[in-house]
Structures are given as C-alpha cells and as structure tokens.
Specification:
Shape: elongated
Structural class: mainly alpha
Number of strands: 0
Helix content: over 70%
Radius of gyration: 19 Å
Distance between the termini: 10 Å
Number of helices: 6
Strand content: under 5%
Largest sheet: none
CATH architecture: Up-down Bundle
C-alpha cells in the first residue's frame, strides 16, 4: 500500500469513527432527553404565561422562566439539533447514501421533536408530547442503524 493509499484509508477510518462517535453520543443524549421529558410531563408545572405562545417565544420562556427540568430539556433538545446536523454533515462527507439518508431521517425526527416540544410548552397538548416521544424513538433507531451499518476499522494486524 502506498503512502497516499494509507492516508486515504486512515482518513476514511477517521470519518467513520467520527460518525459512529457522534451517533453514540446522540443516543446517550436522547435517552437523557427522554428521561427529562418524562419528568417535565409528569411533574413540571408549565408557566401559565406560556399558554398559547408561538414556537420561538414558548421556547424562550421555557429556557428563561420554566422549571429547571424544562430548561434542561429544552437546552438539551437544542444541543441535539446541533448534533443531528453534525451527523448529517459527517455522513455527507463519507459519501455513503444509506448513511446520509438515515442521518437525514434522524435530523428530521429531531426537528419534529423540537417543534413538538415548543408546541407542548405553548399549549400542553397531549399530541405534542406523543410526537416528541415517537420522534425520539425514530431518532434512536436511526442512530443505532448508523452504528451497525457504518464499517468498523480493520484491526491493526490485518492492515500490516
């Protein structure tokens, strides 16, 4: 193997490792987010001032004026948006259509969950709560698929 081929192989392995690492981090964050969401749904009292607010004002009030569990839930959800974008970018750089499609579905599900969360703060609708929970399930499934589909690096002994 030439030096250029070795460099390309190691660059590809780093990209796949980065994609897998981001996907695993997203799964951990999603599980924490799910737990926080259950806590908000069962125990948190949403401020009455948030009632009937549109999406962005409802999100802003959740972060600045909501119970701490709601604030953490909203901030982690926003961090998940950034992570989802990162996973899509990593999959696009690998140029694997399957991984890119799965990462894109995960990002759309995160967006649905984020929007549903903002709606839930605005009107405490059961449908918004259900949409968040289902979207988290879809997102976790997508990231698990990425972990299984993305090739693992060959052991060092095989390369030598």
């Amino acid at each position: 193997m030439t030096a250029v081929e070795e460099e390309r192989a190691s660059d590809g392995a780093r990209r796949f490792n980065g994609l897998r690492t981001s996907s695993l981090a997203a799964i951990v964050m999603l599980l924490i987010e799910f737990g926080l969401g259950v806590g908000v749904n069962i125990y948190a009292k949403l401020p009455l001032a948030d009632s009937r607010k549109s999406l962005l004002p409802a999100f802003g009030r959740a972060v600045t004026s909501g119970p701490i569990v709601l604030t953490l839930h909203a901030l982690l959800g926003t961090l998940l948006l950034i992570t989802g974008i990162s996973v899509v970018v990593r999959a696009a750089r690998i140029r694997d259509n399957v991984l890119l499609a799965v990462a894109s579905v995960a990002l759309v599900a995160i967006i649905v969950a984020w929007l549903s969360g903002a709606r839930f703060v605005g009107d405490a609708a059961d449908g918004a709560s259900l949409a968040m929970a289902l979207a988290i399930g879809v997102t976790v499934l997508c990231y698990v698929i990425i972990l299984f589909v993305a090739p693992r690096p060959a052991p060092l002994a095989t390369i030598l």
